[in-house]
Structure formats: structure tokens, C-alpha cells
């Protein structure tokens, strides 16, 4: 019999790639979807990957425990992937309580629904390298102490520890993936990689001339979302639930990202990028660099896409979206 998976956050970047992966493995995939007045664009990522019709959608919200309980009771899923979140760090300073309710307390809601309605289900929590924040070790692994630097990271830390606690308290098969930044052509436009690849494409096509940016000196360990959802799935195939860092082991600056993306369209970023105060943050995460040894050794997981290839793919997709074919 086909295995059943419930994915929250299915309309997001990772939800779309995970749905594609699970469908390819023969799962019956169910997605939690919150109500939107823009239903026509809600499923654009799943459409882009060609899996919209392979997923069954259910109304609900991570802040509404009753909607989650009913759904988990009805579906009795084998696997539950909790990807839903207010996921943009910068917005978490403007909406700290919403971020707490969705990204933090929302994890308690879905864990409760699983514990009470389908305690045998395997559970994945989308934790984040942002929890390392003001880094306490040059390379961050599962044992590195956390030091969150934003309301988002504080909320993620709550979700992470609650996942660990439900595993230890109730014996749930609950795993937390501490994923470093991962990107793709389906990344939201507000995140720095997509903002830069889209900006470079628009400038190349004469639709804009300048791109306003924040801190160009921040560095991140960036991988491809398609690779990272595979790590999520591998975690839930283990006999024993555990926590894993998922990263590439390489850190690259926002400045280098700009250089590469603009070079991809034959331009010099220094002619088109200018700094703007509004994109600076009240507290910054200067550097992130993950050590994915445990995921490699225990899950057999390694990233398959280089940063350079990923940025090239994203620039080409943005050029195509804006109406012209690929190329410099
Ligand atoms: P996205 O922002 O692309 O997707 C977030 C998803 O959560 C969307 O489907 C959104 O729905 C949904 N959502 C938001 N609020 C609610 C709510 N109240 N109830 C139900 N659903 C809700 O994020 P990503 O796909 O990039 O990330 C997936 C998860 O991984 C997130 O939890 C994120 O914080 C975490 N993460 C991401 C990293 C990355 O680099 N991408 C790194 C580490 C962790 P809607 O479409 O309606 O807005
Ligand atoms: P985050 O790591 O989850 O916060 O992912 P983002 O893609 O939003 O930001 C990554 C880094 O890029 C952070 O250190 C930001 O301060 C930096 N950055 C610099 N300029 C910008 C910008 O214009 N937009 C965003 N989103 N980030 C920027």
C-alpha cells in the first residue's frame, strides 16, 4: 500500500520540492493549505514542478489546533513534515508575535495533533541554522550551542527543543533537521539569493537599472532545496529519530553572490548594486558554516548542486520568467 504523507507549508519552496520527491516515490501526498484570497497563485510552485494535480489539499492553519487534529485523525499519515512557518527573518522583527504563533507555538500544535491522533507517525520539524545566530564555533554541527539573533530564530529554537522533548517524553519518532540556507528558482523573492538573481535578470532585460541591498559582507552556507528535501525524507527512514545538520560545508558572501549572478548576465554588479539602510537588520547573523558529517555518515546524504550551478539555474529561470530566453 502507498505510504501517506502530510506536508504543512506545501505551497512554499520546500513543500513543492518535497511533494515532487514524495510523489516520485509513490506516496499519497496531502498538503495543509491556509485560506488565501489569491487562490489562483497559491499553487504556482507546485504547478512549476508539475505536481499540483498529484497532491490532495486540505484547509487548515498551523495556529488552529482543531484543524490539525481533525486532519491527522482523518488521514492517519505515516509521515508528517512540518514545513509551515513565517520563514522570513527580517519580517520577524516587524511581526514577532505572529512569528511566535506560527513558527514557534505552531510546532506545539502539530506535535500535539500527532501525539494525540497518530502517535505512530514519523515527524519532521524544519529547524534552521539561524538558531546558531551569533556563532559559538567556526563550523556548526549538532553539538554546537545555539545563540538566536532574531524573533524568527527564537521561535525556531522553541520548535526544535519541543521536537526533541516530544521524542524524549512520549517516544514519538520526531526528528529535527537543522537546515542551512537552501535556495532554488522557487525561493521567495524577498530572500537574498532570489532577490539578486531576479534583480540581475531584470537589469539585463532593461526593466530596472539598480538593485538596493543590505549587508553584503554576511556569509551563508547555501545549498539547493531539491537536495535538502531529500535529507528530510532520509531522516524519516531511519529506525531511530534524531537531529541532523544539513549543509554544504562552504560559506560564501552576499557580495560574491552578487558578483556571480551579475556575471551570469555579462554585467558587473558594482555598476548596479547600491546599499540601502532599509535592508540592514537590527541584529545580524554574520557567518554561517555547517558541518554535515553526521548527515553524510548516517543518512548517506551529500549535496549534489554547487553554489555556482544553482545561481546560474536561478538567473536563467528569472530571465525566462521575465519573457526572454536564457543566455547572456
Ligand atoms: P516558505 O516561506 O517558502 O514557505 C512557508 C510555508 O508555510 C508556505 O507554504 C506558507 O503558506 C506556510 N504557512 C505560513 N504560515 C502558515 C500558517 N499559519 N498555517 C499554515 N501554513 C502556513 O519557506 P521554505 O519552503 O523556504 O522553508 C520551509 C521551512 O523550512 C520553513 O519552516 C522555514 O522556516 C524552514 N527553513 C528554511 C530554510 C531555507 O533556507 N529555505 C532554512 C532552514 C529552515 P502560504 O503559501 O499560504 O504563505
Ligand atoms: P536568512 O539567512 O534566513 O536571513 O536569509 P536571507 O536570504 O533573507 O538573508 C541572508 C543574508 O543576506 C542576511 O545576512 C542578510 O542581512 C543579507 N542581505 C543583504 N542584503 C539583503 C537584502 O537586500 N535582502 C535580504 N533578504 N537579505 C540581505
- The helix/strand class is alpha/beta
CATH class of the largest domain: Alpha Beta
Overall shape: globular
Fraction in beta strands = 15-25%
What do we call the CATH topology of the largest domain?
Answer: Rossmann fold
The overall number of domains is 2
Average pLDDT across residues? 97
Explain what you see.
It is a single chain. This protein is an alpha/beta fold and 328 residues long. The chain has 2 domains: 203 residues, NAD(P)-binding Rossmann-like Domain (Rossmann fold); 87 residues, UDP-galactose 4-epimerase, domain 1 (Alpha-Beta Complex). Helices cover 42% and strands 16% of the residues. The protein has 12 helices and 13 strands. The strands form 4 sheets. It has a 7-stranded parallel sheet, sandwiched between helices. A two-stranded parallel sheet has the order 7-10. Helix 1 links the parallel strand 1 and strand 2. The longest helix is centred in the N-terminal third of the chain and has 22 residues. The radius of gyration is 19 Å and the shape is globular. The relative contact order is 0.13. The model has no long low-confidence stretch (mean pLDDT 97).
Amino acid at each position: 500500500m502507498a505510504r501517506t504523507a502530510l506536508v504543512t507549508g506545501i505551497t512554499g519552496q520546500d513543500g513543492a520540492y518535497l511533494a515532487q520527491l514524495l510523489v516520485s516515490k509513490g506516496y499519497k501526498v496531502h498538503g495543509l493549505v491556509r485560506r488565501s484570497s489569491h487562490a489562483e497563485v497559491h499553487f504556482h510552485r507546485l504547478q512549476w514542478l508539475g505536481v499540483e494535480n498529484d497532491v490532495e489539499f486540505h484547509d487548515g492553519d498551523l495556529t488552529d489546533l482543531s484543524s490539525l487534529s481533525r486532519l491527522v485523525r482523518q488521514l492517519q499519515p505515516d509521515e508528517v513534515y512540518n514545513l509551515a512557518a513565517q520563514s522570513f527573518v527580517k519580517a520577524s522583527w516587524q511581526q514577532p508575535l505572529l512569528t511566535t504563533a506560527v513558527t514557534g507555538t505552531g510546532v506545539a500544535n502539530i506535535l500535539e495533533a500527532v501525539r494525540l491522533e497518530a502517535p505512530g507517525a514519523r515527524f519532521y520539524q524544519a529547524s534552521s541554522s539561524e538558531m546558531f545566530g551569533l556563532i559559538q564555533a567556526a563550523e556548526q554541527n549538532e553539538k554546537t550551542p545555539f545563540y538566536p539573533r532574531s524573533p524568527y530564530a527564537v521561535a525556531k529554537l522553541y520548535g526544535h527543543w519541543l521536537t526533541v522533548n516530544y521524542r524524549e517524553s512520549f517516544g514519538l519518532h520526531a526528528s529535527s533537521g537543522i537546515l542551512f540556507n537552501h535556495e532554488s528558482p522557487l525561493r521567495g523573492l524577498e530572500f537574498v539569493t532570489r532577490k539578486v538573481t531576479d534583480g540581475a535578470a531584470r537589469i539585463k532585460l532593461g526593466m530596472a537599472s539598480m538593485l538596493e541591498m543590505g549587508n553584503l559582507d554576511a556569509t551563508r552556507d547555501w545549498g539547493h532545496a531539491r537536495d535538502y528535501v531529500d535529507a528530510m525524507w532520509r531522516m524519516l527512514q531511519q529506525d531511530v529519530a534524531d537531529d541532523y545538520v544539513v549543509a554544504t560545508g562552504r560559506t560564501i558572501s552576499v557580495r560574491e553572490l552578487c558578483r556571480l549572478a551579475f556575471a551570469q548576465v555579462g554585467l558587473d554588479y558594482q555598476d548596479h548594486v547600491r546599499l540601502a539602510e532599509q535592508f540592514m537588520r537590527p541584529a545580524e547573523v554574520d557567518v554561517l558554516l555547517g558541518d554535515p558529517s553526521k548527515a553524510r555518515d548516517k543518512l548517506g546524504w551529500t549535496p549534489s548542486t554547487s553554489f555556482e550551478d544553482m545561481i546560474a539555474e536561478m538567473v536563467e529561470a528569472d530571465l525566462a520568467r521575465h519573457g526572454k530566453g536564457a543566455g547572456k
